[in-house]
Design goal:
460 residues; alpha+beta; Helix Hairpins; Heat Shock Protein 90; five-stranded mixed beta sheet; 12 strands; rod-shaped
């Protein structure tokens, strides 16, 4: 129970209330002591008035008056004269004097603590103002035994009352916390546990019902999180099923298209002018379809193979990529250039880096060709203290805002109409296998620039 929120709250409440009562206890006992002494002064004054009314009283009556007043003697000052009004035997010497004529609070508290901690009976002198202006000063001598006993009795009653108040207050707060906080929190935890058992079941999503503002906000945040997670899980399942279906279809379609490519090779040799004019377009369409199937199958594998790292000349690899793309440009007004030091060597998988550059250059070429305007594609490479940097830039129309939101996500980051959105996803995955990254440096109406970073790592 003590490990629970309500249990700890109960203990803390009891401790704090008791602490508050203790802070009240000390001045209360000091006030009780002052009232006790003032009461004895008042009774002593009444006894002295009886003597003043009749100068001749018997010793037995005088002792009875002193006993009822709880003092040994009474001194009354009237008209600047100090007069011993009542007197009896004193059991010892006076050890301390206390003036109750407007004493400071700290003095009263100190004297009360000293009296509680001192078990020995002491003879003390108490000085105060007479009641109803019946003189200038009244002074009595008394023993501290009864005073200390009375102070202990009063203190025990105060502590007992404080304990009862603390327990009642703590129990009320305990019940309040259980009802207002612990039960709603337990309800939220229960919703979370039931949701964890079946996150796809929308019935387990929490419905906000708390009346406390903070708990209501927590329930609303949990509801939003559960709703988004449930939708994401459903989408993930649908994408997995779709991916499996697409992989199967792409595999069979690739075989069919490969056979179609063989037939197109024969069609290209036809003398029919119509066939000769349509054949290149047919070849291009089939080639793009085969490429799409291969990309889909490559991405559909559980993971890309681990890179086979080796040192190679980046400038020569870049020239191979650009030479292959020049064949695909045809009559389009697109220029390709590279600015890479001839001696720049990197440690990576050359085949995978070739695919990375080929995807980026092909995307740029298709974007420029789709705009119908002339353009330029450039590749720049340089070395930093901890890695190799490759920048692929073009002067195309730039990326649309929708494409930037899901740029490196498969089936969502496609830019070209009819594209599958796999090229940049594959690029990002290949670079992650090298411990590298790809970032979009800039994309505007004047062009797009991607920055590739390959870490040097442990290079001999």
């Amino acid at each position: 129970m003590l490990n629970s929120l309500s249990g700890r709250f109960l203990v803390l409440t009891t401790v704090f209330v008791m602490l508050a009562e203790v802070l009240i206890f000390v001045p209360s006992v000091a006030r009780f002591r002052e009232d006790y002494l003032l009461g004895h002064l008042e009774r002593a004054q009444i006894a002295s008035l009886a003597l003043l009314a009749d100068d001749m009283i018997s010793p037995d009556l005088e002792n009875e008056l002193l006993k009822n007043a709880g003092v040994f003697n009474v001194v009354l000052r009237r008209d600047e004269m100090r007069q011993l009004v009542l007197s009896g035997p004193v059991p010892g010497a006076v050890e301390a004097s206390f003036d109750l004529r407007d004493p400071p609070a700290i003095t009263l508290i100190r004297d009360a603590l000293v009296r509680l901690l001192d078990p020995e009976p002491r003879v003390i002198r108490v000085i105060g103002n007479p009641r109803l202006e019946a003189g200038l000063l009244i002074e009595v001598t008394m023993l501290t035994t009864d005073l200390r006993v009375a102070m202990f009795d009063y203190g025990l009653r105060i502590l007992l009352l404080s304990a009862v108040i603390s327990i009642i207050t703590a129990l009320l707060l305990f019940l309040s916390v259980r009802i207002l906080l612990v039960r709603p929190i337990a309800g939220v935890v229960g919703h979370m546990q039931r949701y964890a058992e079946a996150p796809e079941d929308t019935r387990s999503i929490i419905t906000p019902s708390a009346s406390v503002t903070e708990l209501r906000q927590a329930e609303e945040a949990l509801q939003s999180l559960q709703t988004q997670l449930t939708q994401a899980l459903k989408q993930k399942d649908r994408l997995a099923q779709l991916g499996a279906a697409v992989a199967r279809v792409s595999h069979d379609l690739r075989n069919i298209l490969t056979a179609a490519q063989l037939f197109t090779d024969r069609i290209e040799g036809s003398k029919d002018p119509t066939v000769a004019r349509m054949a290149p377009k047919l070849v291009g369409s089939i080639t793009r379809a085969v490429s799409l199937c291969e990309s889909t199958l490559a991405f559909g594998r559980a993971e890309e193979p681990a890179p086979m790292l080796s040192r190679f000349n980046l400038a020569r690899l870049t020239d191979e990529v650009l030479d292959a793309e020049r064949l695909a440009i045809g009559d389009a007004d697109i220029s390709l250039s590279a600015d890479i030091p001839g001696t720049m060597t990197v440690r990576a998988d050359p085949e995978q880096i070739y695919r990375v550059l080929q995807n980026l250059v092909r995307n740029a070429r298709q974007a420029i060709a789709g705009s119908g305007q002339p353009g330029e594609i450039s590749i720049k490479g340089y070395t930093t203290d901890d890695g190799w940097i490759i920048e692929v830039a073009d002067t195309g129309p730039g990326l649309p805002p929708k494409a930037r939101e899901h740029l490196f996500q498969p089936f969502q980051g496609g830019v070209r109409k009819g594209g599958a959105g796999l090229g940049l996803a594959i690029v990002a995955e290949l670079l992650r296998g090298h411990g590298g990254t790809i970032t979009l440096k800039d994309s505007a109406a004047t062009g797009t620039t991607f920055v590739l970073r390959l870490p040097m790592g442990d290079v001999a």
